[in-house]
Design goal:
alpha/beta, 8-stranded mixed β-sheet, 28% helix, Riboflavin_Biosynth_HTPR, 5-amino-6-(5-phosphoribosylamino)uracil reductase activity, RibDG_C, DHFR-like_dom_sf
């Protein structure tokens, strides 16, 4: 059975996104290529779960980077990796997706994800998409949580866990970076 890994940046006060729709909620992120390398190394992922807002932000940000002559090779590689992954997008508003390898769903998230876990393939990543993270966490469908704690007190924003049933986590790894970001890797206790 495939595993689902959640990856999100969070502020010190627990928000995964700001309320600024113009930046897709990413205006306080402290970007660090070392963090990106640590997160992506030794992971075998072929599917990405996104909500509609996160999908639009990713499409807006990552698709142009593939051909941007000013983008670093690392950023181009991440853009290519995301493009090649199957993107499973849950949205009631989106009617079409233009980014390659994207499948749109507007139905039962839990049922679709349970079926995804049973399909052949490698692990599944979910990024952003707080409402979906909350639903999948409540159903026990997320196996691992990767938090990139960003050295910012946001003050307000979108909370990652709101109205979620309590569950335990086991610490797998921590890693601090010069940028002030801290990677926390947890597995869900069984």
């Amino acid at each position: 059975m495939r595993r689902i890994i959640m990856l999100n940046r969070i502020s010190i006060d627990g928000y995964f996104a700001s309320l600024n729709d113009a930046t897709f909620g990413m205006d306080w992120f402290v970007h660090d290529p070392e963090v990106d390398q640590a997160v992506h190394s030794n992971r075998h992922l072929d599917t990405l779960i996104l909500g509609g807002v996160t999908y639009r932000g990713f499409e807006h940000s990552w698709v142009p980077l593939r051909d941007d002559p000013h983008a670093s090779q690392e950023m181009k590689a991440v853009a290519e990796e995301l493009t090649n992954m199957t993107k499973v997008v849950f949205s009631k508003k989106l009617k079409e997706a233009t980014w390659e390898n994207t499948k749109l769903f507007d139905g039962n998230i839990v049922e679709v994800v349970r079926n995804l876990k049973d399909e052949a393939g490698t692990d599944i990543l979910i990024m952003g998409s707080g409402t979906i993270v909350q639903q999948l966490a409540d159903e026990g469908l997320i196996n691992e949580f990767l938090f990139i704690v960003t050295p910012v007190v946001a003050g307000e924003g979108k909370p990652l866990f709101k109205h979620v049933k309590q569950f335990g986590l086991t610490l797998v790894e921590t890693k601090a970076f010069k940028s002030g970001n801290v990677l926390l890797h947890y597995e869900v206790k069984k």
